[in-house]
Amino acid sequence: MKTENIIYWVIAGIIVLLVASQLTIFPQFSIVTPDEKEENLYEYYDEGEMGEISFYRGARAGNVFTIGAVGPNEDFVIDSISVKLKREGIPGIINLDIYQAGTDGKPFGESLSSGSTYGNDLSETEFEEVEIDLSQTILNKDGKYVFFLSISGGDENNMVWARVFNDNLYPGGDAIVKIEEGWRYYPYFDVLFKVYGKK
Ligand SMILES: [Ca+2]
Questions:
Q1: Class of domain 30-198
Q2: Separation of 175 CA from ligand 1 center, angstroms?
Q3: pLDDT tens-digit map of 97-119
Q4: Long-range contact list for 185-190, CB < 8 A, 24+ apart?
Q5: Most exposed of 49, 90, 150, 181 (fewest Cβ within 10 Å)?
Q6: How far is the CA of 145 from the centre of ligand 1 (A)?
Q7: From 17-31, 72-86, 88-102, the region with the lowest mean pLDDT
């Protein structure tokens, strides 16, 4: 083979390698695209691994949250809320409801959105993140809301625990519990939660 031909083949080989390297590099850019779920994360509080709050027999435990406190401040359609839960015994169905809250954090009106998950499959030893799909409704910019977890049955041996943390790090509201006597606020606690939605 002539020297010029060898040079041509070497050059052609380098071009093929360059093109191939571009083709292999290119898909890596699509891999680093942020996860679709993360793009849709609105209000959240997910720090801390200390403290828990239990609920059963219609008592309600949840947290006040304010749109724009830590997430994007805009109107959006809520899709789901994830919370960290574990069970004791056989709690049955766990319900989650969202209510509008007054400036004092007290809920009022009808449930705006609701969803449920099966509690009997939860771990009894470890808190696990559980995402509960909700009926779609629009939550508003600067709006204040409360989410409540509850089970209709249960007793002292059959209940659900939700992870809370006691440093009051979430600025958009605090833990709140509805019991027979009325509302009980826990101003130094926040229930760990993540609100997902879309524009
Ligand atoms: Ca708080």
A1: mainly beta
A2: 7
A3: 999 999 888 899 999 999 999 99
A4: 185/105, 186/53, 189/51, 189/53, 189/164, 189/165, 190/45, 190/63, 190/164, 190/165
A5: 181
A6: 13
A7: 17-31
